Amino acid sequence: EVQLVESGGVVVQPGGSLRLSCAASGFTFDDYTMHWVRQAPGKGLEWVSLISWDGGSTYYADSVKGRFTISRDNSKNSLYLQMNSLRTEDTALYYCAKDRSSGSYPDYWGQGTLVTVSS
Amino acid sequence: DIQMTQSPSSLSASVGDRVTITCRASQGISNYLAWYQQKPGKVPKLLIYAASTLQSGVPSRFSGSGSGTDFTLTISSLQPEDVATYYCQKYNSAPPFFGGGTKVEIK
Which residues of A touch B1 (CB under 8 A)? Predict the structure, then answer.
């Protein structure tokens, strides 16, 4: 059974930094592209970033480019999102999601971790 | 970047009604489109991929169609458990943007 468990969400001040983690199990982690998707309170889904199976290719939404960095450690079956220069508009539930194959669409999602950016 | 526009943003229909949601891409994306269902307080669930292929376990009252720029998600007979927000997502190339969502309620 595919399981994705996010962690690291906290309350942080504007301008601060945070690293989210996602522990994956139930599938061969290093075979798949992985995504981060976020959802602000009461709002729709916003795709944030993706990383290829080997970490060689990464993509970012314009809203986070230059501030967020996606990475993975295939030896630990883990996905990460380093978030710097946080803004109040980054407040959201952050989901880790497994891609169907290599850069298509998410087919499994974690439960999410809440990031609140507030002074 | 290709933008995805969904309509309507919300709708209210009676149990048993046929419901249609539209998703439009700003440029052609062939059939590289997925649909998700997100029930209140829950994680998004994949319904359809490749514009019209039903994910395993999804009830047959859900169907998808379209290619190029115009796509539809149809619920043939709306059930109370279908109350949710529905999102389309294009995946022909990165970034794989979502549409803004359509909230479906029971009248």
Answer: 62
CB burial of A87-114 (b: ≥16 within 10 Å; e: otherwise) equals eeebbbbbbbbbbbeebbbbbbbbebbe
Record: contact A45-B97, CB cut-off 8 A: no
> pLDDT per residue over B29-77, tens digit each?
999 999 999 999 999 999 999 999 999 999 999 999 999 999 999 999 9
Residue of A nearest to B100 (CA): A44
Q: How far is CA A115 from the centre of its chain?
A: 11
Q: Over the range A33-55, which residues count as b (16 or more CB within 10 Å of their CB) and which as e?
A: bbbbbbbeeeebbbbbbbbbbee
Distance CA A102, CA A82 (A): 22
B51 to chain A: closest CA residue: A105
* Cα B71 to Cα A82: distance, rounded to the nearest angstrom: 35
B87 burial class (0-12, 13-18, 19+ CB within 10 angstroms)? buried
